[in-house]
Amino acid sequence: MDNxxxxxxxxxxxxxxxxxxxWFLSLLMGVLKKAFPYKKEEEKKSS
Amino acid sequence: xxxxxxxxxxxKTGFFHLTLGHVIMWLIGAFFIYLAIAKEFEPLLLVPIxxxxxxxxxxxxxxxxxxxxxxxxxxxxxxWEVIPPLIFLGIGALTDFGPLIANxxxxxxxxxxxxxxxxxxxxxxxxxxxxxxxxxxxIIGGADGPTCIYLTTKLAPHLLGANAIAAYSYxxxxxxxxxxxxxxxxxxxxxxxxxxxxxxxSKLERIFFPFIGTIVIVLIVPESAPLMxxxxxxxxxxxxxVVERLLKTSQNELLNIVTIFLGLAVGSTMVADKxxxxxxxxxxxxxxxxxxxxxxxxxxxxxxMNLFLKEKINPLIGSxxxxxxxxxxxxxxxxxxxxxxxxxxxxxAMGPNIAGVIGTATAxxxxxxxxx
Lengths: 47, 372
Known about the structure:
The complex is a heterodimer of chains A (47) and B (372). Chain A has 47 residues and is mainly α. Helices cover 85% and strands 0% of the residues of chain A. Chain A has helices spanning 3-35, 40-46. By secondary structure, chain B is mainly α. The radius of gyration of chain B is 22 Å and the shape is globular. Chain B has one domain (84-371). The chains are: A mainly alpha (47), B mainly alpha (372).
């Protein structure tokens, strides 16, 4: 693979891969929110 | 037999080995120290870097050759990949992930802001840099000094000085570089968008996030493990609230110590015969391109997301996807308040800002994985 082709491939795969990784992480954070919802008691403790 | 003639003694002093290149490097070192002291541009890094440039360009001084003092900092600190992960430990310990956990969508903005990294990588190839050099130049666009240093040390160590200086200089210049791009790409109405107050985040969410983050990022991009593992363990120290001593050490003493070694080690790579070449000029130019495109990527994705979201996000926070924490978030806040003084975007912008740190480390891991 020449440098030019590698550059284009890396641009697409790298950017896509980074977006997908972060998107997947954001999905799991949604699960985290449901699994450990914020409770009012925490507010009282922290204050 | 030892030669005690005046000529021989004089030849053993540095004076007779001075070149114009050395003097130019002194001036460059002095310029960085000036920026740090007079303009407060990244002083914690630029003071040791500037002084290191100065001393390693004193001829005959036993500092950078194998076995010498600053060489040891470079060898064990950077070549052995110790310092950048330790800096990440400190950053993790200092970072409140709350805004990111409260609004996970902002992770995508942190990813989009890596656009500049990949565009510049491609641009550097077009300018004639080889693939490894191009990757280490592209990562400047992530605006994350330790990641830039980590990747450059692995792929193109001869560019370390120029890359690190470009990354830290542009990070300091975020308030100058980003605002024109932000204004160009957004309308007044978009800049006025107010965002709903962030939800509170539970303690358990905060504790579990470092685990989830480590598992996801490291399983997908194993090469990012040294940075990500240290980043998240630092954050776990912060959120578990039972290791106060470790937390304080990570946030303060350890971070300060490794910052000193980092600055001296980076500066030591800038010796006249290696640095005074055309490449650093291209690197400074490409670094600027990278920063600009990263800002563009974050803003444009925020605008795109607004086409589908019920609760609109202010596209200005997309620009904070470059990692320069918290400077980029402050810039988003400032530009937003120019349109609406009662609009508080800072906490919203911290989400993409922190996501940018993770995104840049992920991008670095991608480069390493592809180039192995």
